[in-house]
Design a protein that fits this description.
It contains 26 helices and 16 strands. By secondary structure, it is of the alpha/beta class. The strands form four sheets. Strands 3, 4, 5, 6, 9, 10, 11, 12 and 13 form a nine-stranded mixed beta sheet that branches. A three-stranded antiparallel beta sheet has the order 14-15-16, with no helix packed on it. The radius of gyration is 28 Å and the shape is globular.
Length: 666
């Protein structure tokens, strides 16, 4: 044994020991004897192999390597599903699902082997990638209740922004995968073959060429065609976790790649939009009109929802007393959204653009994937109407959901982030609290008014109520207690107290603008229900959360909204039967406040009469029935297809986009 080899072994063993000890300290559940046994086997291999590697030299050079190449994909398949911990079981799965998953792991392993002709590299890379997919996905599911789909790859930066906010622990299943990765490292570092380096270059080239053909043809078949869909591999767009449980993780993820391809709506034609323009002409900014120009303050408050809308939840005092008390010059109620527990930017996009996520693939976020140039939104219309401010405010990192790049495309003149707040700014749970956030709105308003007399516009995304809710929260008053012992689960009272604080902050903001002479409208809404545990929601609902369908599913996809003005506007309260989805909220605000509207806004107000609720899960018609978006038997199918045409033209058909339908006229 050479000196360098001894040093390498020592360094490896020290690192492996540290990883093992630290990893074991995070295990909170050792349920499952087979997992304990397998974990022990992997750890034994990881620590013993450096000492027996010389005796194992070249043992896999001949036929045993092909046995390994056949068995190893199944090992990765099994261990990954264990790490995912979605209740998926290989035993009992359909044969096509087993073959599909095994085939994908095999494709990964064999393609690497074709390019490298190295068993070390092949086992190492495919094993580590499988492990990362399993463990990282486990946390994604744990924290947001939605597994990783292809569209989430682009949101990696956002995920990393908030990753430090969570508490990381796991079960023996996830540690088993970590032990497996250690074994992969051990094999990679210390196994030596006898003939891998002596392969004929022509042989290497032929095998690599064949591998490239297989990889390219497979990628096209899986991602560019409906091969998987035609074989019954589908994705539940409402709850993708169900697809993970039915089809396995890797097969579901691969199936989601195809959903990234956005097809034109059936019968797509620009003529459809130009004809609508005649019926719904955009208001002109230069026209002599009675349209009002109030200050417009839009606040999307993190996770602002009412759990008492979801199920029976008794508390010792009102959670949002100020919100509930508002009636004069107020429109409020339930706003239905397309996301649950996370993916904030999708609700943001639906409000600002008027488009619905109903026509986009599950797991995708327009900010990350589709907006690469100018797009008309409410912000652009505020610019055309000579508003001042034109500010975006989010007291967190600018890179979240790619906002720093997207906001300029929407027309925002400045983006205020956490970096623009003083270091001693008051926080709750480490995030700028809503009172400080709203104080900044007032500060920017007063600054703008000191510079010119034009009305003021700001769009604000808060941060105070961001998950996770478990554990102790810094600076969070403990004012709300749950009276139902079965619902007193970790984090729930923290969440209710956060909403109570938001309600108090809203009170201060409304009282301030209630005393100003300038006409002002405040639009306030939540982005999604909070990401609390499945156990809590199951108890609150009185049934399994994941068993809900149709209208019952919609019960998890609504938040609260408010339109308040300091001048006379019509008053209305949207309960469930009359609820609206978030894509209509902008248009409702403009009409109620007597402001100008684009042709798109006017069209949506008419569509809302027939389809008051539409989101990524489906829609509810005026008849009170739930329909899938592609349900051709629906009496609203043609209207939905027209709306799909408008959304496609607005977001994707940039060369032929009819901007004059989405913008105010000059």
């Amino acid at each position: 044994m050479t000196k360098n080899n001894r040093v390498l072994k020592i360094i490896y063993l020290v690192i492996a020991a540290v990883v093992t000890v630290f990893g074991l300290s995070l295990v909170t559940d050792y349920t499952g004897k087979r997992y304990i046994v397998l974990t022990a086997c992997f750890l034994l291999f990881a620590f013993a192999f450096p000492f027996i590697c010389d005796k194992m030299r070249g043992i896999l050079d001949k036929w045993p390597r092909y046995v390994v190449l056949l068995i190893y994909p199944f090992i990765c398949y099994y261990l990954t599903e264990c790490a995912l911990d979605t209740t998926y079981s290989i035993i009992g799965s359909k044969l096509k699902v087993i073959v599909g998953n095994y085939g994908l792991y095999a494709l990964l392993l064999w393609s690497i082997y074709a390019f490298t002709l190295s068993l070390r590299w092949s086992l190492f890379i495919s094993g580590v990638l499988s492990g990362m997919f399993g463990v990282v996905n486990y946390y994604v599911i744990k924290f947001r209740q939605i597994p990783i789909l292809a569209g989430d790859i682009a949101t990696t930066g956002t995920a990393l922004n908030v990753a430090s906010d969570y508490e990381y622990s796991y079960t023996i299943k996830q540690f088993m995968m970590i032990a497996f990765i250690l074994a992969c490292f051990s094999f990679f570092l210390f196994y030596r073959s006898g003939n891998e380096k002596r392969r004929d270059p022509r042989f290497r080239l032929i095998i690599a060429g064949l591998g490239a053909v297989v990889v390219i043809s497979s990628a096209y078949t899986l991602a560019g065609t409906d091969f998987l869909k035609n074989h019954g591999i589908t994705i539940n767009t409402f709850m993708p976790i169900k697809s993970y449980r039915n089809n396995g993780g890797l097969l579901t993820f691969t199936r989601s790649i195809r959903t990234m391809v956005i097809d034109k709506p059936k019968g797509y034609s620009i003529n459809t939009i130009t004809e609508l323009q005649e019926k719904y002409p955009s208001d002109k900014v230069s026209a002599d009109t009675d349209a009002k120009r109030p200050n417009v303050i839009v606040i999307m408050d993190e996770a602002f929802a009412d759990l008492q809308d979801v199920g029976v939840l008794h508390t010792d005092k009102e959670v949002m007393p100020f919100y509930d008390s508002l009636t004069e010059n107020t429109i409020k109620g339930r706003s239905y959204v397309s996301v649950f527990g996370g993916q904030t930017a999708n609700t943001e996009y639906e409000f600002l653009s008027n488009d619905s996520k109903a026509f986009l693939p599950a797991g995708t976020t327009p900010y990350q994937l589709y907006i690469k140039s100018f797009i008309p939104t409410l912000t652009q219309n505020m610019i055309l109407d000579n508003y001042s401010g034109i500010l975006a405010l989010h007291p967190y990192k600018a890179s979240g959901y790619n906002r720093q790049n997207v906001y300029p495309y929407m027309g925002f003149s400045d983006f205020i982030t956490v970096a623009d707040f003083a270091e001693d700014t008051h926080t709750i749970g480490g995030h700028v609290d809503d009172k400080e956030d709203f104080a900044r709105i007032i500060e920017e308003y007063e600054k703008a008014k000191s510079e010119n007399s034009e009305p003021f516009y700001i769009f604000n995304v808060t941060m105070q109520n961001h998950s996770p809710y478990v554990g102790e929260w810094e600076n969070l008053p403990d004012e709300i207690d749950i009276l139902d012992d079965n619902l007193k689960q970790d984090g729930v009272e923290n969440y209710l107290n956060l909403i109570h604080e938001s309600d108090d902050a809203l009170k201060g903001l409304v009282e301030y603008f209630g005393k100003t002479d300038d006409p002002t409208v405040i639009v306030y809404f939540g982005d999604h229900e909070p990401g609390l545990s499945d156990e809590f929601y199951n108890e609150l609902l009185g049934t399994e959360k994941n068993s809900l369908k149709g209208l019952e599913q919609m019960n998890l996809y609504h938040t609260r909204f408010l339109i308040w003005a300091n001048y006379d506007i019509p008053e209305e309260n949207y309960v469930f039967e009359d609820g609206i989805s978030i894509n209509y909220l902008q248009s409702v605000m403009l009409e109620a406040c007597g402001m100008k509207m684009s042709g798109y806004n006017k069209y949506l107000l008419d569509l809302m009469k027939d389809v008051p609720i539409i989101n990524a899960n489906g829609y509810v018609g005026a008849d009170g029935k739930f329909y899938e978006v592609d349900d051709k038997t629906s009496p609203y199918f043609n209207e939905i297809n027209v709306y799909n045409t408008l959304c496609y033209n607005h977001l994707f058909d940039k060369k032929n986009r009819v901007d004059s339908f989405f913008e105010y006229g000059e």
